[in-house]
Amino acid sequence: MTTSPRVLAVRFGSLGDVVLTTPLLRAIRLRHPDASITFVTKRAYAPLFAGHPHVDQVVALEPGESVRSLARRLAATTFDHRLDLHGNLRSAVLRRYLPGRWSGFDKHRLERWRLLWLGGPGSATRWPAAERYFAAARALNVRPDGGPAEVFPSDADRRTARALAAPSYVALAPGARHRTKRWPRSHWRALAALLGARGFGVVAVGAAHERRLLDAPGVVSAFVESLGATAALLQGAAVTVCNDSGLMHLATAVRGRVVALFGPTVQGFGFAPYRARAVVLEHPLGCRPCSAKGSAFCPLGHHRCLRGIDPTAAALAAVDLVHAA
Fold it and tell me: Do 112 and 15 reside in the same domain of the chain?
């Protein structure tokens, strides 16, 4: 191994998974300060790594770009270590078109299968997703340092956030990619009213297309296209209440306090808030978990896993976190 290893790390998506690669990137930087670290991800997530202290170069897979084209661009650089942090068909194709010694990691599919179909705690609880990535970097002799994921909003992002939100506020993030992972709209409105009655400013955050998920009196709408601006909004919040979603991980990565609402999924899958000041609210049901990632519809048609989490409980959890030392 060279004294200044050239490292290629690949994780195309999704948001939470991409954010959770950052403890590994930090560990590589700390163990090998002179390493050259190239991170590959989708264009949508690339801005989160612009200026990131543990990444030297960000290479974005552009919308509509073929993996073969991406491989041609990467072939201009020689890498000592190629880390496949995705382990899907697209990354397998990249490995084919960019030959060399690659290393991957165990997704603990068997443990997830056990949790999903057999119940019980499962061993996945011992392996947070962020720490599974380290198996791909064994040759670099790195280990988790006990720190959180990290994302660093730019000064421009923070200025955008200040223009959108008042100085003191609670952030509510009602979105999630899959419908069954979304707390009901009526519950979000009730929570906003409860927090407003306690004197908190309330800011709704997320992507622009999620604006319909929370539109209520007294709520500042800060649904924006820029992930960097969203990260800055989460960083400035006294606490964030969110579904089990990418924004949950983004909030923890900016050192935010988090109240996370888990429904069809469970913490045992390895995607609980990582190394964060967080509270996870869950409604105990025998049918949980019903999905590893969420789905379009509740298999039993009742969606009680999230409907059963009371807005009052979420408000109390948020207030407790705000006032925690």
Answer: yes
